C-alpha cells in the first residue's frame, strides 16, 4: 500500500487536480493505474514522457498525470503527437484517446498515423460510447446496442480497432481489458517500448452511459461480462466461428519490426548529409 | 393559443424542429447543444418525426451531410457549439453559396483554449463572414419561436440562405423555462411546405458548387451577398407574421427603458434580459438610461440600429466575444462604423464581458452605467471584471 501511495504522489497531480471525473466502476482509472505502473517499471523519467490526450473522459488523463502533457482538441491528439515526435524523436510520446476521439472524429488521423508507422504509443480506451457528452452512439457502439441517439438499437456496424490498425500498417497491435489489470500492465509496457506505431486497445466499461442502457444492472455485471467473454488470443483462434461469437480476444495481434517513420527520417538525413559531405 | 409548459429550453427547441416537420437531421454530440439533437433522435426513433437522423462521425460531416440533404430539396436541420462549429467552418461557406436553406441552432460556447464548455459568442463570431443569416435569442420562448421563424425565412424563395439561430449555451439551453407551445396545425398554418427551386434531380439535372473562375467568381459572390441583404425585408415580414399568428412580437432591433435616453446599452443574446433588469433599477433611481437589443446580427440592420440610437449621447456596447488585436469587439466595431462621419454621433464605449461563462450580473451593468455616465472609460474597449491577481 505504501508503495502505491508513493507512485500516486510521484506520478499524479494528486493535490491539484483531484477528485477525478471518472464514475465508480469506470475502466479508465484502471488503465491510468496500469499506465503509471508501466512507466515506473520501465524506469522512465517523468520529464522524457509526453502525454497527448484528446477530449472526453479519456482526455482528462492528461490533466491528472505529472508528465509533460497536452490536452488537445477533439480528434486531433494524434496529429499534435506527430508534430511532437518528429521534432524530438527522443521523447516518449504516449497518446491517450477514446473511441470517439480515435475512430470517429479523428478516424482519418488514426489510419494515417498507423500507415506512417510513426513511433507513438497509442492507448485507445474503448468504452463503446460518448461518455462525457451523455452517451451517444460512437463508431464502436455494437450493432443493436441502445444509446441516447439509438434508442431502438444501433443500426450501423462498428469498427474493429485492432483489425483497422493492423490493416493500416501499425507495427504493434494489442488488446487488453480493464478486468485483467495485470495482463494490461504487460501489454502496456510492450506498447510503450515497441518501435513504430504501437496500439493498445483497452476494453473499458462505461456503466453510467453504456451499461445501464444495455442490460448491465450493476458495474459488477459489466466486469463479470468482461471476465467471462475475454479469451486469450491463442485460444480464440482455435475456436469455431460459432463459439468465437461474442468473445473478446485479448493479447498481441500484430508484432512487426519495421523501421518507424522517425528512424527512416534519421537515415535519410544521415544519407543526405554524407552525400553533401562528398560533394 | 398553445399550452404553457415548464421545460428545458433545448427540449423546447427540439419540439420546434419536430413541429417544423424536418426531413433530415444530421448531428454530432457536443456540449451544450447535445440535448437538442438527442431529443430529435428519440422523436425519429419513436416515429413521432418522419425524418432521417444521421449520427455522423464529426461536425465537418454533420454540415456536409446537411448540405447534401438540403441539395436534394429536403428540409434540413442540425445543431452545434464551439469546437463543433469551428470544425464546420469550411462547409459553412458552401451552404449559402449553394443557396441551401439549412437551419442550425448554435448553442453558443467559447472556443478553446483554455478548454471551456461555457458560454460566450466567440464561436459564432468566427463564422460571422460565412454568409449565413444570424439571429440571436434572448430567452427560451424566443429560441422556440425563432427556430420556427428561421425555417420560413430560410426557405422563402427570395432568400434561400441558411439561418443560424444562436442561443447562449447553458444559460438558455439547460434552463427550465415556461414555454408556450403550439400544435402542428398552428405551425403548419405559419410555415408552408418547402418548395425548393433547384434540387439534385435526375430528371432535371443541375450542377451545384462548381468552380468559379476569376471571370465569374465576384459576380457569384455579389449575387449571394445581395440575397443576404435582401433577406432583411423577409426577416421583417416573417417576424411581423409571427406576431400576428401568435401575439408574440419580435423586431430585428428592439428598445426598452427610457425613450430618448442619454445613455443606452446595446446587448445581444441572453445578457439583454440581465441588462433589462439593471435598466429598470436605474430608471427607478431616476437615471436617464435605455437599452437596444440586437436580434439580427447578419444581415446587420443598419437603418434600424441607427434609428434606435439616434437620440443617445453615450452608447455602451456589450460584446460577448473578444477580437484580439482589433480596434474593439465585433458588435462595437459595427456600431462605430455605422456612426462614422456622423456629426451627431454618440460617444461609443465598448465592454467585452462574460467570456468563457463568466457571470455578468445586474450589478455589473449598474457599474458599467456609472463609469460610462461619468465618462470614465478611456480605452477603446474594456475587458470587464478581469482579476488582476488571478
Short description, anyone?
The complex is a heterodimer of chains A (279) and B (390). Chain A is of the alpha/beta class and 279 residues long. Chain A has helices at 2-11, 28-42, 61-64, 77-87, 99-105, 107-116, 161-168, 181-193, 219-229, 233-238, 241-244, 261-278, and strands at 49-53, 68-71, 92-98, 121-126, 172-177, 198-203, 230-232, 248-255.
Helices and strands, with pairings:
The complex is a heterodimer of chains A (279) and B (390).
Chain A: H1 2-11, H2 28-42, E1 49-53, H3 61-64, E2 68-71, H4 77-87, E3 92-98, H5 99-105, H6 107-116, E4 121-126, H7 161-168, E5 172-177, H8 181-193, E6 198-203, H9 219-229, E7 230-232, H10 233-238, H11 241-244, E8 248-255, H12 261-278
Parallel strand pairs in A: 1-2, 1-3, 3-4, 4-6, 5-6, 7-8
Antiparallel strand pairs in A: 5-8
Helix pairs in contact in A: 2-8, 5-6, 6-7
Chain B: E1 4-8, H1 9-19, E2 24-27, H2 34-46, E3 52-55, H3 59-71, E4 76-80, H4 82-92, H5 94-97, E5 103-108, H6 122-125, E6 133-136, H7 140-155, E7 163-168, E8 176-180, H8 184-190, H9 214-246, E9 253-257, E10 263-267, H10 271-284, E11 289-294, E12 296-298, H11 302-309, E13 314-319, H12 330-338, E14 347-352, H13 362-373, E15 382-383
Structural features, described:
The complex is a heterodimer of chains A (279) and B (390). Chain A has one domain (2-278): Rossmann fold (3-Layer(aba) Sandwich). Chain A is α/β, with parallel strands linked by helices and 279 residues long. The longest helix of chain A is centred in the last third of the chain and has 18 residues, at 261-278. In chain A, α3 links the parallel β1 and β2. The mean pLDDT of chain A is 95. Chain A has twelve helices and eight strands. Chain B is of the alpha/beta class. Chain B has two domains: 4-246, Thiamin diphosphate (ThDP)-binding fold, Pyr/PP domains (Rossmann fold, 3-Layer(aba) Sandwich), CATH 3.40.50; 253-383, 3-Layer(aba) Sandwich (Rossmann fold), CATH 3.40.50.920. Chain B is 40% helix and 18% strand. Chain B is built from 13 helices and 15 strands. Chain B has helices spanning 9-19, 34-46, 59-71, 82-92, 94-97, 122-125, 140-155, 184-190, 214-246, 271-284, 302-309, 330-338, 362-373, and strands spanning 4-8, 24-27, 52-55, 76-80, 103-108, 133-136, 163-168, 176-180, 253-257, 263-267, 289-294, 296-298, 314-319, 347-352, 382-383. In chain B, the strands form three sheets. A seven-stranded mixed sheet of chain B has the order 3-2-4-5-7-6-12, sandwiched between helices. In chain B, strands 9-11-10-13-14-15 form a six-stranded mixed sheet, sandwiched between helices. In chain B, strands 1-8 form a two-stranded antiparallel ribbon. In chain B, α12 (330-338) links the parallel β13 (314-319) and β14. In chain B, α10 crosses α13 (362-373). The mean pLDDT of chain B is 96. At the A-B interface, loops of A face α2 of B.
Amino acid at each position: 500500500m505504501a508503495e502505491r501511495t508513493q507512485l500516486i504522489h510521484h506520478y499524479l497531480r494528486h493535490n491539484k487536480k483531484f477528485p477525478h471525473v471518472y464514475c465508480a466502476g469506470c475502466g479508465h482509472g484502471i488503465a491510468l493505474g496500469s499506465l503509471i505502473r508501466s512507466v515506473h517499471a520501465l524506469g522512465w523519467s517523468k520529464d522524457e514522457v509526453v502525454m497527448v490526450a484528446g477530449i472526453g473522459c479519456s482526455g482528462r488523463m492528461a490533466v491528472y498525470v505529472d508528465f509533460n502533457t497536452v490536452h488537445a482538441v477533439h480528434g486531433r491528439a494524434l496529429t499534435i503527437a506527430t508534430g511532437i515526435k518528429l521534432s524530438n524523436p527522443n521523447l516518449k510520446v504516449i497518446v491517450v484517446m477514446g473511441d470517439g476521439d480515435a475512430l470517429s472524429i479523428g478516424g482519418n488521423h488514426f489510419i494515417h498515423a498507423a500507415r506512417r508507422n510513426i513511433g507513438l504509443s497509442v492507448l485507445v480506451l474503448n468504452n463503446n460510447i460518448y461518455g462525457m457528452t451523455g452517451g451517444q452512439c460512437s463508431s464502436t457502439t455494437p450493432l443493436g446496442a441502445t444509446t441516447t441517439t439509438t434508442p431502438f438499437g444501433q443500426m450501423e456496424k462498428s469498427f474493429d480497432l485492432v483489425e483497422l490498425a493492423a490493416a493500416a500498417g501499425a507495427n504493434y497491435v494489442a488488446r487488453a481489458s480493464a478486468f485483467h489489470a495485470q495482463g494490461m500492465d504487460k501489454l502496456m509496457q510492450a506498447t510503450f517500448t515497441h518501435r513504430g506505431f504501437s496500439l493498445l486497445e483497452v476494453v473499458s466499461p462505461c456503466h453510467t452511459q453504456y451499461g445501464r442502457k444495455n442490460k448491465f444492472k450493476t458495474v459488477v455485471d459489466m466486469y463479470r461480462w468482461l471476465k467471462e467473454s475475454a479469451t486469450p488470443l491463442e485460444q480464440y483462434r482455435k475456436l469455431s466461428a460459432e463459439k468465437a461469437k461474442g468473445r473478446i480476444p485479448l493479447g498481441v495481434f500484430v508484432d512487426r519490426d519495421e523501421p518507424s517513420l522517425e528512424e527512416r527520417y534519421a537515415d535519410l538525413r544521415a544519407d543526405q548529409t554524407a552525400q553533401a559531405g562528398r560533394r | 393559443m398553445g399550452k404553457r409548459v415548464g421545460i428545458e429550453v433545448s427540449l423546447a427547441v427540439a419540439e420546434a424542429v419536430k413541429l417544423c416537420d424536418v426531413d433530415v437531421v444530421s448531428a454530432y454530440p457536443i456540449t451544450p447543444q447535445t440535448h437538442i439533437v438527442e431529443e430529435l433522435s428519440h422523436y425519429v426513433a419513436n416515429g413521432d418525426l418522419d425524418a432521417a437522423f444521421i449520427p455522423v462521425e464529426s461536425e465537418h460531416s454533420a454540415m456536409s451531410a446537411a448540405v447534401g440533404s438540403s441539395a436534394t430539396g429536403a428540409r434540413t436541420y442540425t445543431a452545434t457549439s464551439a469546437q463543433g462549429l469551428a470544425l464546420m467552418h469550411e462547409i459553412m461557406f458552401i451552404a449559402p453559396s449553394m443557396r441551401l436553406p439549412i437551419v442550425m441552432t448554435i448553442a453558443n460556447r467559447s472556443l478553446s483554449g483554455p478548454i471551456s464548455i461555457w458560454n460566450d459568442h466567440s464561436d459564432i463570431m468566427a463564422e460571422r463572414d460565412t454568409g449565413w443569416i444570424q439571429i440571436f435569442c434572448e430567452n427560451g420562448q424566443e429560441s422556440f419561436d425563432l427556430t420556427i421563424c428561421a425555417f420560413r425565412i430560410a426557405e422563402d424563395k427570395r432568400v434561400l440562405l441558411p439561418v443560424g439561430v444562436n442561443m447562449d449555451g447553458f444559460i438558455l439551453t439547460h434552463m427550465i423555462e415556461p414555454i408556450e407551445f403550439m400544435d402542428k396545425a398552428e405551425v403548419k398554418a405559419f410555415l408552408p411546405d418547402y418548395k425548393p427551386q433547384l434540387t439534385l434531380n435526375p430528371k432535371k439535372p443541375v450542377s451545384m458548387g462548381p468552380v468559379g473562375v476569376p471571370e465569374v467568381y465576384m459576380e457569384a459572390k455579389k449575387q449571394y451577398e445581395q440575397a443576404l441583404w435582401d433577406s432583411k425585408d423577409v426577416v421583417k415580414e416573417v417576424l411581423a407574421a409571427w406576431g400576428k399568428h401568435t401575439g408574440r412580437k419580435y423586431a430585428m432591433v428592439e428598445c426598452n427603458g427610457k425613450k430618448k435616453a442619454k445613455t443606452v446599452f446595446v446587448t445581444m443574446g441572453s445578457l439583454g434580459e440581465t441588462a433589462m433588469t439593471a435598466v429598470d433599477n436605474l430608471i427607478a433611481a431616476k437615471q436617464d438610461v435605455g437599452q437596444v437589443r440586437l436580434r439580427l446580427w447578419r444581415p446587420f440592420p443598419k437603418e434600424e440600429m441607427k434609428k434606435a440610437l439616434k437620440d443617445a449621447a453615450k452608447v455602451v456596447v456589450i460584446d460577448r466575444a473578444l477580437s484580439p488585436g482589433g480596434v474593439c469587439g465585433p458588435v462595437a466595431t459595427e456600431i462605430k462604423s455605422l456612426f462614422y462621419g456622423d456629426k451627431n454621433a454618440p460617444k461609443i464605449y465598448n465592454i467585452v464581458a462574460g467570456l468563457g461563462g463568466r457571470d455578468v450580473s445586474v450589478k455589473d451593468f449598474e457599474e458599467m452605467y456609472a463609469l460610462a455616465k461619468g465618462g470614465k472609460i478611456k480605452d477603446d474597449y474594456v475587458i470587464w471584471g478581469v482579476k488582476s491577481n488571478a
